[in-house]
Amino acid sequence: MKGLYKVLPPFTPDYSGVCSVLFELGGIVVIHDACGCTGNFTGYDEPRWYGSSSAVFSSELREVDAVLGDDKKLLGRLENAAHILGRSFVAITGSPAPMVIGTDYEALAHILSQRTGLPVLTFDTNGMHYYDRGASLAFMELARRFVKPASISIETGVNIIGATPLDLGNRQQVEKLISLLSSAGCRIVSCWTMGSTLDDIAQSAQARLNIVISRTGLEAARYLESEYKIPYVAGIPIGSAPTRSFIDAIRLWLGINGKPAAPHNASEPVAGVHNALIIGEQVTSNAVRDCLRLDMGITNVTVASFFGVDQALLKEIDRYLDGEDDLTALVKEHQYDVIIGDPLYRDLVAPFWEGCYVAFPHVALSGRLYWDSGFDCIGEAGLALLREGILSESSGISVAERVK
Amino acid sequence: MSSNAFYLPISEVGGVGSHWQRKVMPSNCLHYCPPSAGGWGIIRVGLLVPESVMLFVSPAGCGRHGAIAGIQLGFKKRLFLLYLGEVDIVTGQHMERIPQAVADILATAQRRPKALLICATCVDALLGSDYDGLTRQLEAEHKIPVRICHMDPIAMDGKTPPPLTVQEAVYSFLQPSRQKEPAVNIIGNFAPIDAESEFYDVMADAGIGAVRHIAACSSLEEFQLMSRSTHNVLIKQGGRLAVRQMQERLGIPFCFAPVAYGLETIAQTYHTLGEFLGVELCTERYREEAEEAINSYQSALGPLSVAVGSTANASPFELARALTEYGFRVRYVFADLILDFDVEHVEWLKHHTPDVEVFTNVHPTMVDFLNCGLMADLAVGFDAGYFCSGAKTVPLTLDSQPYGYRGVISLLREMLNAFEHPSNHREQMYASGMVI
Q1: For a Cys staple, A232 with which of A221, A379, B180, B317, CB 3.0–4.6 Å?
Q2: In the CATH scheme, what is the code of domain B50-158?
Q3: Domain range B7-36+301-431, CATH architecture
Q4: Considering only CB atoms, which chain B residues are within 8 Å of A6?
Q5: Cβ contact A64:B156 at 8 Å
Q6: Strand (E) or helix (H) holding B297
């Protein structure tokens, strides 16, 4: 039944996507809710919350205020927080209850901005959409509101756009990516939004290329392309051959001299693997597909996503999933030899499917359950992860037998 | 104090608010949710009903914390989620989709559930959705009891906040019984009173044949036996709507005999309980046992400084008083609410330990807690452990239920254990599956 979820927990909602993007930027971020939605973010969507001093709050909306449409309390609380915490901007993101009462976020922003003198960002989120929509809105708002025209252009400068723990899982993934790009001769102007400040982001127009590592960063990258003529590439290096191609492509864009990677010899297909399904965020899943294709010779690979998909990154074989039934129908129809995805999807397909399941945790589904697992997929580690999952030590055994 | 975090000296603690719960924090503040916030959550409490399942009807995001905690703690297989979209909000169509979802769940369940809870959220509270007619329809169609509960924190400051109404819903599954047995039901908490507590022996000596608790019932049938009990003992305020409803509907009178750790308070509680049951309860020897344990553990632990939090299985103010009476130095209390039961203990602390500082978990200035430099040797409760990051933490969670004089011994044992075998606070806290 559409809308009925019997196995999977809810995905990270849109307001958490907003908060995740803004988390490290030094503002006051308020979820306009009764506290439960904020608890989702702080307890289940944000690995950085423990021990942090990021100012993410609940507005503590109550029934009487909602029924009377009384925004004075919210404004007063925000003003008070701006006064005592002294941060650089305010962001308000919505939840289901304010949607029901038709909260006018633009009016709130206007009043609050006048009273505090701070930039006020608002996001009309409602908890009915998933994190990718909220994160995309937040990246776009950063591009629109904070990036300044550049007086200089850094020849080898790049911005990384689309970095949140919701897709990357942990900070080490970003650090590896930055290290990889730096080794290739790139200068990182900013990383949206793990490890950079709002000032770094404001200087983004100095870069010559944007590297979009999740679909959530695409809209902002397209805006920067149209506004500041900065082109973008969408991708994340996972695996051996794809990482070399990724680096070569970046160097080519930036005109950095370097030894190009040796021509890639097509890998022999893995015995017994005829098709594979990857369930997850689109850019990462496409990168995993490249790894399967280039490093392991597995060419019949479908990407399926419960989150938004971008037509430009979509292959004909790919699928958008609008509920548990869509995924079960897809797997029943194709009986994939290999499925790669968050461990929780396995519970959904296990009753009727036998094959090789490779766990690829995604915080936007399993939240805190795996965020401390030390998951590592960037570069060669991605190939090791997939190879270990797919190729058991006894390669002559069929896939089904291996899983049993 | 070396920080800018909001706090009150105990002498200034009075509380803001007009009815049974007063807030420590001023009302003009945003709400901070520290990682250490939370408890059992509405879903887990609702699913205490044996052999039940829950259909959670909400926008997609609302059920996330409860569902992931359910995977962690093993109750997710009894939880189903029906998502609302914008069209549902405008048209109320979701009410028409619920019967189909229920039929689907019951038809595909491996073991047919014997009870169903439908959980509605803030959205339905604002829309005024009518679930009463729907439950009657579903009961008639599927021949199982169906009840509505609410996870609507938007009603948190009202007279019927969700932590109380969910317990009311849980006990509304009990049917009136003509058969009565000399037994007590323990209401308000989530785990049976620890087996080591003297409470069971004290009740047996008083002629009480059984001490019943919902979490000890393995079937809906066994749960129904609670209707036959002659008395309800409310040990946590969260059950106060439930016991009133059970008094009206099932004719079971109740008495408030709260969890406490101070010897005088425990003695007074047993006295009240004895009057309620109409018998004299003999507890003196247990008190002596506890006094001996206090002396012994106090010597072993030494003159510790302690922070007391509100996530502990206790009233933070009563516990702070008890620890002071044992001989420890309580420096900080982390508390967001002052309940009626707390008032007497707040007053005691004002007179006896005026240097105690009271923080709230939720004030916006707590985001900078790392700069606070709050120092204590031992913290009781995950919140106290989080804010006093150098302290060894005694979780004292809601997953087990110390009670009476042996509850004191249990607490002291846990304190010594935390001191001798400290755990990683973050790992310990996340593993507990607390839900805000």
Answers
A1: A221
A2: 3.40.50.1980
A3: 3-Layer(aba) Sandwich (3.40)
A4: 80, 105, 108
A5: no
A6: helix B284-301
Q: Does B96 lie at the interface with A, CB-CB under 8 angstroms?
A: no
Q: Is the dihedral of CA B29, B32, B36, B42 positive or negative?
A: positive
User: Which domains are present in chain A?
Assistant: 14-129 (3.40.50.1980), 157-234 (3.40.50.1980), 276-403 (3.40.50.1980)
**Assembly ipTM:** 0.96
The answer to whether A51 contacts chain B (CB < 8 Å) is: yes
Which of B3, B65, B123 is best to mutate for the A interface (most A CBs within 10 A)? B65
What are the backbone dihedrals phi and psi of residue B338, each rounded to the nearest 5 degrees, phi first? -120, 110
Q: Which chain B residues contact residue A9 at CB under 8 A?
A: 63-64, 67-68, 70-71, 76, 81
Task: Of A218, A325, A349, give the one whose Cα is nearest residue A277.
Answer: A349
Position of tokens 């000399």? B182
Tell me the DSSP string of B317-382: HHHHHHHHHHT-EEEEEE-SEEEHHHHHHHHHHHHH-TT-EEE-SS-GGGGGGGGT----SEEESH
The DSSP element (H or E) to which A234 belongs, if any, is strand A232-234
Question: For residues A128 and A94, what is the distance between their CA atoms, to the nearest angstrom?
Answer: 11
Q: What's the CA gap between A273 and A398, in Å, rounded?
A: 9
Cα–Cα dist B388/A51, whole Å: 12
Residue-wise pLDDT for A54-94, tens only, equals: 999 999 999 999 999 889 999 999 999 999 999 999 999 99
CB-nearest partner of A4 from B62, B104, B127: B104
Instruction: Give CA separation, A325 vs A88, A132, A181, in Å.
Output: 45, 21, 40
Residue B38 forms contact with A (CB below 8 Å): yes
How many angstroms separate the CA atoms of B277 and B185, rounded? 12
Please write the tens of the pLDDT for every residue from B289-337.
Answer: 999 999 999 999 999 999 999 999 999 999 999 999 999 999 999 999 9
Contact B65 A12 (CB under 8 A): no
**Judged by CB atoms within 8 Å, which residues 96-115 of A form the interface with B?**
96-97, 99-101
Tokens of A359: 């766990």
Location of structure tokens 């309800």: B232
Rounded alpha-carbon distances, angstroms, from residue B183 to B199, B207, B402, B407: 13, 9, 20, 22
**E-assigned strand segments in A75-200:** 90-93, 120-123, 157-161, 187-192
Q: What percent of chain B is modeled with pLDDT above 70?
A: 98
Q: What is the pLDDT of residues A209-264, one digit of tens each?
A: 999 999 999 999 999 999 999 999 999 999 999 999 999 999 999 999 877 777 76
Region A142-159: mean pLDDT is: 97
Domains B7-36+301-431 and B50-158 share a fold: yes
Contacts of A87 in chain B (CB under 8 A): none
Amino acid occupying residue B233: V
Instruction: List the domain boundaries for chain B.
Output: 7-36+301-431, 50-158
B282 residue type, one letter: C
Closest CA to B151 of B130, B170, B190, B123: B123
Any CB–CB contact under 8 A between A5 and chain B? yes
Beta-strand (E) ranges in A236-328? Answer: 276-279, 301-305, 319-320
Which residues of chain A make contact with B363, given a CB cutoff of 8 A? none
**Residue B43 to residue B57: CA distance in whole angstroms:** 12
CA A231, A234, A237, A240 dihedral sign is negative
- Tokens in use for B162? 């969700």
* Chain A residue nearest residue B89, CA to CA: A100
**Interface residue A334 vs chain B (CB under 8 A):** no
Report the distance separating Cα A55 and Cα A29, nearest Å.
6
CA distance B135 to chain A (A): 19
